[in-house]
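This entry is passed on directly below:
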Amino acid sequence: MIKPQIFRQYDIRGIVGEELNEETYYLIGKGFGTYLGAKGLKSIVIGGDARHSSRRFMDEFIRGALETGCTVYDIGIVATPVLYFAIWRLQTDGGAMVTASHNPSQYNGCKLNLGLGSVYADELQNVLKIIQKGEFSSGKGEKLIYSSMDSEYIDYVVQGIKLKRPVKVIVDGGNGMGGPYLPEILRQLGCEVIEMYCDPDGDFPNHHPDPTVEKNMLDLSRAVVDAGYELGIGLDGDSDRIGVVDEKGKMLFGDQILNILARDYLRANPGQKVIADVKCSMNLFNDIKARGGEPIMYKTGHANIKMYMKEAGVEFAGEMSGHVFLADRWLGFDDAIYVSCRFIEIVSQSLVPVSEFLADQPKLFNTPELHTKCADERKFQVVAKVCDEFKAEGYDVNDIDGARITFADGWGLIRASNTTPVLVTRYEALTAERMQEIQALVESKIDKYL
């Protein structure tokens, strides 16, 4: 039988051979096909990343889905945004992407979609319950090979980007799935491109495929400085998250990338709402407001944000983790390939280097995302108690996702991770000393309940 722990908050994820095998994907295919059938739906598009197990796992998913009567479009080994694009392009009822995103090479997984929305949280658990009960619908489905999705996606991206001049950019594909797409798109747009680690390789031999971690961007930083190029773009394993380094080799964090994109968006769309998750800098929220936009602080998690964007009619959103969602000139999903092009479009229009894009902002001191171990069955309870205590003491607390406590000169965050047994904290203030004071205050309350 299937191991229930692989069904996480936003997707399915596990270690190949220990938690995932061919039988797992056969059952997921049957479960998802039955789930769709109960809604009167039947068409699925499937793709997979470059991990060594992905193709055979895709085949087993397809076998299971066909047995429930689904029509399955197989678009092969692709980036996750190409799978999302295919759902839109082919107008399928659902989608399945066999990927473990930025996880190490021994992992694989599966992201399920209902239209362009994610199947997550309770809905993903409903797919698991179907599998556990073994009550599958039956039918004889049809498999269709659709081999031109890559070229259609590339053409669609190129048509929507207008550069004022060629830009010199280095692309670090992290041996993930962005390598076959982004350099080709940028060259078609007229850019000068140097490729690094752009050949997909499921072993990820050069560095871990997560461009939000500084050590994974060191090679790219050095290469940009050595070549005298304008910027470097890093992509994660399945290309739904972006990393950027400026011409000096300095890494921009997710909220800084979002800030630069938000300024450009608000210039063209004054007064609009912009969503950012609770982990983002107060510089971002203050800047959106100062430029006439309406900042909305929301829950962390790509599935949460995509759902809320649709509900609230918002065109632009992003996360500290490098997910950026654009429904302005694009289709609303997190696509690091397309977002890279939008960022480079801004660079092509600028008279100043990337390192000066946010030079007018106040200098802030902040921690990275910090993790404290806490059992899954206790972590939400601990967060709730800390949140209640800060509220009772009269602090300004946003509890949309854990507790973000705002002070006149900084803020602190505590939230429970949705995917691992940890408490997530982050701190920011106008001075290093004040940041440490806020951190000490929040941690003193956490320690009471751990």
Notes: Residues 432-449 form the longest helix (18 residues). The chain has a mean pLDDT of 97. Residues 101 and 238 are 5 Å apart (CA to CA).
